[in-house]
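SAMPLE LOG
Freezer: B-3
Tube label: C17
Construct: single chain, 314 aa
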Amino acid sequence: MKALVIGGGGFVGSYLINELSNSGYEVHATHLEGEKIQADCEKHILDILKKEDITKLFNDIAPDVIYHLAAQSSVSVSWKKPQLTAEINVVGSINVLEALRETEKQDIRLISIGSGEEYGFIRPGACPLNEEETLHPGNIYAATKACQEMIGQIYCRAYKKDIVLVRAFNHSGPGQSSTFVISDFCRQIAEIEAGIKEPVISVGNLSAMRDFTDVRDVVRAYHLLAEKGVSGRVYNIGRGKAVEIQQILDTAISLSEKEITVRKDPARMRASDIPLIEPDTSRISEDTGWKAEISMEKTIKDTLDWWRNSLLSE
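STRUCTURE (predicted):
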């Protein structure tokens, strides 16, 4: 079996490449000029804003399954750069779908990665959210991902393409950018321990409740969906239990011996923040047998250790 990971240079890419390679796949992955893929596979430079290049790559590789990971995936960045976010997440995804439609090999399965942020402004009592819940995106990133999903469904129905659609909730782990909350807390703690910054950790909204899953569990879910998911169906991926950001912070601080003060930073507050997002994950469990296995505590500890080691090697 041959797999192509689009966006292999991102945080999730190396984890997915390793998951697939360990399962016996011949893995190809794309990255942007200047990016590096931290995993062993066949590497290709690709910009998803260039459709002809995508079509050529699909024809050259003739993969059995494609994982579309390439995205501008930061909510905070989407508020600052909405046009860039729309270009990558919407126009880029249309280019991938058009290339899928035009490629010579017609039996390719596409795993299209969306986000739990798509649910947005949630009606009272709706959590845990199942996949039939109406979407009300509450930020630019979420709106682009909802659009990507809807267009994917159109290509699935209109052109009979084999597409499995994913709404992945928050996932974290070693190597993630500090624009995401768990990695941000861990980076700041590691810097405090290394004497790089004062023993004060800057935070945003700590009362928001989110579902967090380890990236290593998430890529296992992507793999299982490629093998067992139902074409045209949308799947939530998450732990199925939301926790307060305050709990994430408390756990991270407890892993350090330093005395750390917490300070709220207005610049870290989002223009629109949903109080609670929690998924119902029964559909993916029923169709594939998947469930999250790695504890949140292990995710935080491994991420903190990664930052500690990164600072030591600088």
